[in-house]
Amino acid sequence: MPRTAPVRLQFKDVSLHSAGLFPLTPALSRPAFSRSIPFRLGVTSYVYPSDILENVQRLAPVVDDIELVFFESADASNLPTPGEIEKWRVLARKHDVTFTVHFPIDKALGSPDPVERDACLTSILSLIELCGPLTPHGWILHLEGIEANATPTRVREWQQDLIPLLRIIAGVVDDPRHVCVENLGYPFEWCEPLLASLPFSICLDFGHLWQRNSDWKAHLQHWLPRTRIMHLYGFDTTSRHYSLERAPMTLVREALHDIGNYTGVLTLETFGYDDTASSMKRLKECLGKEGLRG
Questions:
Q1: pLDDT digits (tens, 9 = 90+) for 129-145
Q2: At what angle do helices 52-59 and 82-95 cross, to 10 degrees?
Q3: Does the pTM exceed 0.85?
Q4: Where exactly are the structural domains of the chain?
Q5: Which of 10, 15, 70, 218 has the fewest Cβ atoms within 10 angstroms?
């Protein structure tokens, strides 16, 4: 099972609930600090125990960006219809909200299995065509199919398998700079040869860096100029995403200070109302009374 499977199950569990089985979840309100921060504040499309449409309806007045999290597997799928896409587009325009699209992670684009690689590419290309009318702020891409303990030979094979697929993706999207490669559980240096030949951007996931005990400051300093999306959430030794309350406040404050005047999207990548609401509260506490200037 892929390393990211717990995260997939986490948002799949939320998405498959029926809103009619739950009491009305309290509405989030737009945080006052959103007026003093340079970045666009985002959350995922699975805050409320309902479908994506209801989440977009309830979240669009509250945040600046919504991360659309999709999955497509043999047992379940949440891929939208063109009609649903149009409803999301109208809501986004009304509330001046943008979308980031997270490609499905049920298959690995860098798998050793060519059949799986082709299936993953087909899924990605279909989603690009389907979600194109939303003009996403970014397309979040996992380069999976590799483990942190991979041999140098396997790393080279993985890189060689990915290059032609990434070129296809770059040629299909309106702007390849909107494709954002996310750091995962393996050394991100392995992606550098791929990013050197393609104009892709970066999705900088603080949680993954902190889980690996990486030199996150060096990573941030190196990749910040190419970073278009950031992910922030609480963590432990697993890949599950928790409320930001689970991350040390000193660490979060340091990260928020170090991103400076970053103007891209910063997504509280949590799934479920409680974790998202408490993450907003903790973010406010970490920002201080004057936002990033505090």
A1: 999 999 999 999 999 99
A2: 10
A3: yes
A4: 5-19+32-293
A5: 218
